[in-house]
Design brief:
Blueprint lengths: L5 E5 L4 H11 L3 E5 L12 E4 L1 H9 L7 E9 L5 E13 H14 L3 E3 L4 E6 L4 E5 L10 E4 L6 H6 L7 E12 L10 E6 L4 E6 L5 E8 L5 H6 L2 H12 L6 H6 L7 E8 L7 E2 L2 E3 L2 H4 L8 H18 L2 H30 L3 H17 L2 H8 L13
Parallel strand pairs: 1-2, 1-9, 2-6, 4-11, 9-16
Antiparallel strand pairs: 3-5, 4-5, 7-8, 10-13, 10-14, 11-12, 12-13, 15-16
The structure holds flavin-adenine dinucleotide.
Flavin-adenine dinucleotide (FAD) binds next to helix 1 and helix 9.
Length: 389
């Protein structure tokens, strides 16, 4: 029997439900407390699930989600293909992944409470309770898992001096378009370093498609993104891609302002010094947010949630948290650093662009399966026993 019996999971996004499911598999009863009043159906843009994330999701019983995306074709602003990187991924909408996980968790008997925004915790010798914004307090549990995203409250409760997210210099936008007017790209996602911004798109056999763009921009909090009308963002994006030989202008023209999804400032957390304190521990973006350029945010969140559950299955919570951090930290920080370098290329100035374009073929040649295996081939052995340090 697991030494930990009960867990409070704060946050019902992606890491939260995966953690609850994995904890159940480990014999630990988990209850999810989500700040939002309702579910997150229809919210968010596109994300990719890498083979390593796919494998972690398999361990909690989530089968295929989204569309296959088996290659990335990288082009320059002249439309010339620099390289094609073959890598089986799944392309999905955050809302679809979220809904599948939510249904799976609720179906497995996980209790999910909405409208409960954690503001504090109360810890005692026997357990921990979550204190919510409306003044209500949760039942006592053995541990509290902070799966509350990049602006985590649990992170601040663990360490009041914890770092704030770092802005990459890029804003993220995207949309799903019915009738893209382009030939299907099959299972390929096309991406291009334009002269002023980064662009990606995929078009499907049914005529629909999806695009995303990363637009260099001086620091812009969410407030600025929200207060600027979508028409204006579409206009600015069109300006950024004018003259580039990529189908950005065509796709922007076919995007209704109401359909534009702004994912806001692209941010990460390169190093969170403290992942746990007492009975509290972080999982997912709260501990190791990586910018969307990695294509690994959801995958790493799923991996960490499963690893945490394994550790809690086999060890008392203090040792489990240490073992979990030891298993995860170097890996996630390597992915975050890699994505940060990619962002620097996307937000490069005129000189940086020349250097980037000159080096692009070399970097592309380096992205061989052998060199990326550390990232994509990572598999968690659920059955293996987790040992204390
Ligand atoms: C609404 C939304 C849309 C997103 N869209 C995209 C996207 O388009 N593309 C992309 O690549 N990534 C997107 N992400 C981020 C991506 O889903 C995450 O990087 C990744 O999946 C890691 O998941 P996570 O569960 O750790 O964090 P998140 O997915 O951010 O989930 C955190 C959850 O915790 C809840 N929460 C926060 N604070 C509290 C609190 N104090 N008390 C209780 N609950 C709390 C939040 O409401 C949220 O549901 C989005 C995240 C959110 C929340």
């Amino acid at each position: 029997m697991a030494p930990t019996r009960t867990a409070i999971v704060v946050g019902g996004g992606i890491a939260g439900p995966v953690a609850a499911l994995a904890l159940r598999r480990a014999g630990i009863e988990a209850t999810v407390h989500e700040a939002h009043d309702g579910t997150a159906d229809g919210v968010g843009g596109a994300l990719s699930i890498a083979p390593n994330g796919r494998a972690a999701l398999d361990l909690v019983g989530l089968d295929r989600v989204g569309e296959p995306m088996n290659a990335i074709v990288l082009q320059n602003h002249r439309g010339r293909t620099v390289t094609e990187i073959r890598q089986p991924m799944q392309f999905t909408w955050r809302a679809d992944l979220y809904r599948r996980l939510y249904d799976l968790a609720v179906g497995a008997g996980v209790r999910v409470h909405h409208g409960q925004r954690l503001v504090d915790v109360s810890e005692s010798a026997t357990g921990v309770r979550a204190v919510f914004a409306d003044g209500s307090v949760s039942e006592e549990a053995d541990v509290l898992v902070g799966a509350d995203g990049i602006r985590s409250t649990v992170r601040r409760l663990i360490d009041p001096a914890a770092p704030e997210p770092r802005y990459s210099g890029l804003l993220g936008f995207g949309a799903r378009v019915e009738g893209v007017g382009l030939p299907p790209t099959g299972d390929r996602m096309y991406m291009a370093f334009g002269r002023r911004a980064f662009f990606g798109y995929q078009s499907f056999a049914d005529g629909s498609g999806v695009w995303f763009a990363n637009l260099p921009h001086p620091y812009a909090g969410w407030d600025e993104v929200r207060k600027t009308p979508n028409e204006e963002w579409l206009h600015r994006l069109a300006g950024a891609f004018s003259g580039d030989a990529v189908p950005a202008l065509e796709l922007l023209r076919r995007t209704a302002p109401a359909d534009l999804v702004s994912s806001g400032p692209m941010e990460d957390l390169p190093h969170v010094p403290q992942w746990h304190r007492g009975r509290m521990v972080l999982v997912g973006d709260s501990a190791h947010a990586t910018s969307p350029s990695s294509g690994q945010g959801a995958s790493l969140a799923a991996e960490s949630a499963v690893e945490l559950a394994r550790a809690l299955r086999d060890l008392p919570y203090r040792q489990a948290f240490a073992a979990y951090e030891r298993a995860r930290r170097a890996r996630v920080e390597r992915v975050i650093a890699e994505a940060h370098r990619t962002n620097s290329g996307k937000a490069a100035g005129p000189v940086g662009r020349l250097v980037r374009d000159a080096l692009l073929p070399l970097f592309a040649r380096m992205a061989t399966p052998a060199r990326t295996a550390w990232k994509f081939d990572h598999r968690i052995d659920w059955e293996a026993r987790v040992l204390a340090a």
